[in-house]
Design brief:
three-stranded antiparallel sheet; 13% strand; elongated
Length: 219
């Protein structure tokens, strides 16, 4: 007589006791937030099957990342300009898409806070805060720029600044030594006009010869 098969033991559901940060849940959440910001449908980093970004979505992701970099750098320079204003003598600058180099003497965001209110008002204020900056150059020129008009950041290294300073001091020393050699100063004004060379005929030819020449001319 055939024996009845033994009932198989029920399989226990697989559980992972590791925290969410180890299982990739935190990474998935961050990826989903990024995907929502740039318009991607879904990104799953835990399963290893990432959503393939289109060309337009890739460009939007890179552009959003660059805007965040510019915003954080200008905010840091804004704080630094208040604590160490002597450093903002033109060594830091922004490069615009028009090809301009705008030196930074002072910089601060025009709107740097969120507005309490309805959910839409809060989200709208968060979306636009620290996206427009006012830059005052060391010469006193004032620029108001959105971050999407900034193409790059430019700065001079301390070594280059020291080299430029030494070159300027050498030029000043050279001009001072030339002045001390006792050279006569250049004439100015009426004296400069009187010192202009004249033609030799007008200087050497006497007035009597001019009169005789006029007499010999046929009428």
């Amino acid at each position: 007589m055939a024996k009845a098969p033994k009932p198989s033991a029920a399989k226990k559901p697989h559980t992972d006791a590791r925290p969410a940060s180890h299982t990739g849940a935190g990474a998935n959440e961050a990826a989903d937030n990024l995907a929502e910001a740039v318009g991607v449908t879904h990104v799953n980093l835990h399963s290893g099957h990432a959503y393939a970004l289109s060309s337009a979505e890739t460009l939007r992701t890179r552009e959003l990342y660059w805007h965040n970099v510019v915003r954080e750098m200008l905010n840091a320079l804004s704080v630094l300009s208040q604590s160490k204003p002597e450093m903002f003598d033109g060594r830091f600058a922004v490069l615009t898409h028009a090809g301009e180099r705008i030196a930074i003497g002072k910089v601060f965001p025009l709107f740097a806070c969120s507005i309490p209110g309805s959910p839409w008002e809060r989200e709208a204020s968060i979306a636009v805060q620290c996206t427009v900056f006012r830059i005052i150059s060391p010469d006193g020129e004032v620029y108001t720029l959105p971050i999407h008009e900034i193409r790059g950041m430019h700065s001079l290294t301390p070594e280059l600044i020291e080299q430029l300073q030494k070159s300027a001091e050498a030029q000043q020393d050279g001009s001072a030594s030339d002045d001390n050699e006792g050279e006569a100063p250049l004439p100015f004004g009426l004296a400069a006009f009187a010192a202009l060379p004249r033609p030799e005929e007008d200087i050497d030819q006497p007035a009597d010869q001019d009169t005789e020449r006029d007499k010999q001319q046929p009428i």
